[in-house]
Fold:
Amino acid sequence: MRVGIGYDSHRLAEGRRLVIGGIVIPFEKGLLGHSDADVLCHAIMDAVIGAVGLGDIGRLFPDTDPRWKDAVSTELLRYVVDLARMNGYAIAWIDATIIAERPKLGPFRPAMAAGLAGALGVEPSAVSVKAKTNEGVDAAGRGEAIAVHAVALLERVRR
Ligand code: MG
Structure:
């Protein structure tokens, strides 16, 4: 078994779609980024990359590379899972915590978990997505950003 820890955060801005876990969430702002800025996918990718020991996410997906401009992050996640598989590891379990003051994300958790499971190639029961506020503290608490912490457990498989 290998475990990886992942983190990501993006600034909230006007005129952007809010995409979290591959789900478009109705809100007056969206996350700013080179890709679709799907902070949940990025934190999970970071965790998977960490479990395999492939280094920084920015090395795999540099934001100077036009290939990743407006990229759909669930597709990037699929790519990272394929990389893990090529290195002999499969996803066993994902747990993630979204830190967002607004909007309320609870109603979207099942859809996020189901969509992520599809991208990860696992059952929805192997994906845990949680959401909480930051009690008004720091950038996430002031509604300026959304952050995600994630953990990935990978198991060794035959190549
Ligand atoms: Mg990111």
